Recover the amino acids of this structure.
């Protein structure tokens, strides 16, 4: 790839779980890390998130285990209703690693464009204040999805 993803941009491992409270407790014990706050998002329409090209409406519990001193974070996702990349993964695979996240800086759009040219679909695109996230549907080719972000 002309715009290869830089390994130095690795920031995240995201795991789909069925019971976020239990999983977070186990991960925190394993890493001797503090228990994160578990955030819950209700299934409401959000104009800033699309799933497979349509407005996404889904519920989710999310916990981020901060291991930045180790160079990354572990995100736990428990889908709680509606169609989403997270529910799709859980239905297809059960629990497991959903995506690896990479910060690409100003090269984000060039990387996404090149991935689209190579036939990868953008499964989910989300915008939030100051940044965005794009889940690249790469399970079949890479064994895991990618999350390409301009910055943390």
């Amino acid at each position: 790839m002309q715009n290869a993803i830089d390994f130095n941009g690795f920031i995240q491992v995201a795991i789909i779980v069925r019971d976020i409270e239990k999983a977070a407790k186990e991960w925190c014990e394993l890493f001797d890390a503090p228990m994160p706050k578990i955030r819950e998002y209700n299934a409401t329409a959000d104009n800033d998130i699309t799933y497979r090209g349509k407005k996404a409406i889904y519920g989710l519990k999310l916990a981020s285990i901060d291991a930045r001193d180790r160079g990354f974070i572990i995100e736990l996702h428990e889908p709680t209703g509606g169609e989403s990349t997270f529910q799709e993964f859980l239905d297809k695979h059960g629990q497991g690693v959903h995506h690896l996240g990479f910060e690409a800086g100003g090269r984000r759009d060039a990387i996404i464009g090149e991935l689209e040219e190579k036939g990868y679909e953008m499964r989910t695109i989300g915008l939030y204040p100051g940044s965005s996230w794009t889940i690249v549907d790469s399970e079949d080719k890479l064994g895991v999805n990618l999350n390409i972000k301009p910055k943390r």
